[in-house]
Amino acid sequence: MFDQCIWPESLRLQAVNRLVQGLDRPVSAAVAPVNNEQISIVHYAEAVGIEALPIKTNYRDLPQTLAGFCPGIIQVHHQDQAGYLLVAQRKGRQLKLLMPDGNSHWCDQTAVVEFIYQDRGYAADPTNVQVLDELGLRGNRLQKARALLLHQQFAQQPIEAMWFLRAPCAADLKTAIGRERLGRFATGFMLAHIAGRIALLGGVSLLGYAIAQSLWTPSIVLSWLLAMLSYWAFNALGQMCQVHLDVRLGLIIKRQLQASALRLSPEAQATKGPAKLLGQAMEADGLQHNALPGAFAALNAIIDIAIGLTIAIVIQQWALVLFIIIFLMANSVLTVKFARAYREWTKQRKQLSQLTIEHIQGNRTRLMQSSPQRRHKIEEHLLQAYWSTSLQFGQWALRLQTLVPGLWLISASGILCIAIFLSLLSMMQLVALLGAILLVWQAWHVFADSAQQLVRTWSAWQDVQDLLQPEKNTAVQAHALSDIPASNSSSVLNVNQISFGYSNTQPTLHNLSLHLQQGQQYLLQGESGSGKSTLLALLAGQASPQQGWLLCNDRDLPSMGYRHWRKTICWVPQYHDNYMFSATLLFNLLLGRSWPPTQQDVDDAEMACEKLGLTPLLKKMPAGILQSVGEMGWQLSQGERSRVFLARALLQNPDFLLLDESLGALDSATSLQILGNLKNEPSATLLCMHP
């Protein structure tokens, strides 16, 4: 059965394309399938615009892994040759496997699991099988016993060579929303709300007619009950659509925020600073909580106002029609005034928050160097401005909340009283007029609440749109996988006449060429501001040259892919640009590897610490390498943290190691010892330091 589902090694890139089509992602002609054995699935997936995430599981957890694996690729061995299974979809316990001939086959997940077990060579011990046969087990009991023995024997055995494919996070929020197809839920909500309002008005009209005519026939009562049940059903359907939209949009915003933050260049991060980035994250949270509720409430209010306007036109109450239009205009003016006041209030609030974070970070500096008489003048000035804008914001919010609904009730009641006293309308028309007045009155209250939520959404969008949108001028032009210019040398890194500069100033680097050989050690010296760190950032893929070529192992960054590029070239930034997480020392050392670690990972980490002179530190810690080092490396000196950063890089086993003043915090003896150990590493090393 599985023989026809296996894709041979020669068709592995076509297999990726087949799954890409299921993700609604077009395959670029520039990266058409090529039978190049040097191109891995991960790199080719990056080139066609998707993500192929390597999955590492074990024998015990394989069924749970396959439960969320679609779409994915599983490497198997068939007739002593490598092949691949393509899992496209999942329905219940059925998996859809794609065949090389263009067809597909549905099979049970258990069969796929058993096939993978057999392919990996996980067979029961013959002695155990013989024992089971002697016990006389048959049927399901025998299968369960064999499965239990296999789980006990191979539970922790790793299963690798699996890739989960997914579309990457969209470049902008609009594309992400379009990809999730949220329009159907919005349409469903709107239609359900309109149908519910029609059912409610029909039920109210029937009730008013029955009361006026003293007519309570079974047909009228049944019709009223059906109208109320329809209103309840449509309302429940609308709420269900709203919940789906709210959850999906919240997930999109969170995903976009995280992906956009990770796409930020180091220059953008330094420009914004932690206080502004934290403020943007908080505003994005407000965007999520206010966008959909405000939009749905506004849509409800608009539909109710439209229904009330339609009723007024049908019964020819033109005064009521005119009032609705006038109050709509008044609501719009009040909303604009409220938006301006809220925007100014938000500006003052953000300034206070950013100043508070900045002062917390620099509290020691302020205490030591700032004059006590001037220490709080800025805070007092901002607090006074915040108090003033808060009063204005509160006043406009109160007017928006109470002015229009109150005046509407007074004006519309006057129209109703005139119609009653002058007997201008029939009883049914009076009931319809009263229903329209109350419906629109409720709509003004809902509109006021929704207007405030939408203003908060608009304000939050103004603050976070640069974070949720792609950065400009940072994309690197991709090249065909088969058209990468070849290099005549065997160097790891080839730099050919690259230039780079910030803004419109003179280029920091101009027509720079380097040819760095693998296994060698290089020293880069220069004055402050000469472009040393800029060059290392370009080599590490943190920035793109404005002109020229940069090749790693004869391939440029787009063809190799960011993941493989940064695995091949490891950059250890300066001390203030590196980070230690609030976790164990082992976690910080193995940040570039998988987690949880294997015993081999732990042994490698301890060996790296020994090479860099961190063994005394491990002996001093109560928990050794499992000791928690705290946020920003608390409990470690600057020199110890510098060596942890260097050990973290060595544990990634890169081909090229870039050290940006990594030995500046160490004494000369320790520095010489580390340099001596680096000579024994297979990777090339470029050390950047001051003269």
Describe the overall structure.
The termini are far apart. The strands form three sheets. Strands 1, 2, 3, 4, 5, 6 and 7 form a seven-stranded antiparallel β-sheet that branches. 29% of the residues are buried. Residues 26-36 and 471-490 have low confidence and may be disordered. Helix 22 (668-678) links the parallel strand 13 and strand 14 (684-689). By secondary structure, this protein is of the alpha+beta class. It is 58% helix and 13% strand. The chain is built from 22 helices and 14 strands.
Shape: globular
The proportion of strand residues reads: 5-15%
Alpha-beta classification: alpha+beta
Helix fraction, binned, reads 55-70%
Determine the mean pLDDT. 77
Cα distance spanning the termini: 68 Å
- Using the CA coordinates, give the radius of gyration: 34 Å
Main pleated sheet: 7 strands, antiparallel
Tell me the number of strands. Answer: 14
Poorly predicted parts: 26-36, 471-490
DSSP helix count?
22
Keywords: ATP-binding, Membrane, Nucleotide-binding, Transmembrane, Transmembrane helix
Membrane topology: Multi-pass membrane protein
Subcellular location: Cell membrane
InterPro entries: ABC1_TM_dom, ABC1_TM_sf, ABC_transporter-like_ATP-bd, ABC_transporter-like_CS, P-loop_NTPase, Type_1_exporter
Summarize, please.
The protein is of the alpha+beta class. The protein is built from 22 helices and 14 strands. Strands 1, 2, 3, 4, 5, 6 and 7 form a seven-stranded antiparallel β-sheet that branches. Strands 10-14-13-12 form a four-stranded parallel β-sheet, with helices on both faces.
